[in-house]
Every structure is written in structure tokens, then in C-alpha cells.
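Give me C-alpha cells for this 145-residue protein.
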Amino acid sequence: MRLTTFTDYSLRVLIFVAAHREGRATIAGVASAFDISENHLTKVVHFLGKRGFLSNVRGRGGGLALSRPAREIGIADVVREAEGTMVPAECFDAGAGCVILPVCRLRGVLADAMKAFYDVLAQYTLEDMLGNRAELAKILFAARH
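Here you go.
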């Protein structure tokens, strides 16, 4: 099981914004902290705003803020939104051509594994990712050269 880069960046953006204490965060700040392209992050931030995780304000005095408290943003929710329909194997795709599909038990095992994956993620919120806020701040908000 591997999350897409898009999902990884979505989670990083949310952690950065949630850990940011000085007004609104910026895409440039996130890009600098994680050494990620601002162009790619723009797509991520737009997505997070459309899905209701971020409040994005353009212009002077603008920036990024959480749209609701970190304790109300579930990690499973973010991953589900960013990943879309995750398929662990080809047989989960409509029209898959596997010859043993009608009698295959592996599909059920993989479905159980996916459920367990999301059940674990559902136990955590964005706030849980901030338990080490001081350490995060030292890394994320250190002056970059």
C-alpha cells in the first residue's frame, strides 16, 4: 500500500498550516519547508480548499488557514478524498479480465486489508499529528537559506 504523492503533499500541507501560529501560512512557506514545487502545491491547496479542509484567501493579507479546527479533520477523510477510489489490485477495477475472478478469495482478503487501513486512519485527526508542535515548528519554520 503506497499513497500517491498528491495525498502525501495534501497531508504535509495540512500539518504545516495547522502547526503555523503566525497568521496565515503561504504556499511559498510550505514549498520552502518541504522543498516541493510551488506549482504542484498550488494544485494541492486548491483541492484542499474545494474539499473544505482549507480556507484559501488570495491577495494581500491572504494565505492558507484550516477551514475548521484540526480536531475535526480526520486523516482518513483526507486520504479518501485525495486518493479517490483506491484499488489494491487490478481485479477491483470494473471490467478486469482476471480469469479466476468468479472464485478468487484474494479479492476479499485485499478488501479486508483496505478496510483495516482506513479503520486505523479513522482513529486519528490532524490535531493528533501536532502532539510534537514545538519540534515541528523548529523544522518547518526554521529560516531557509
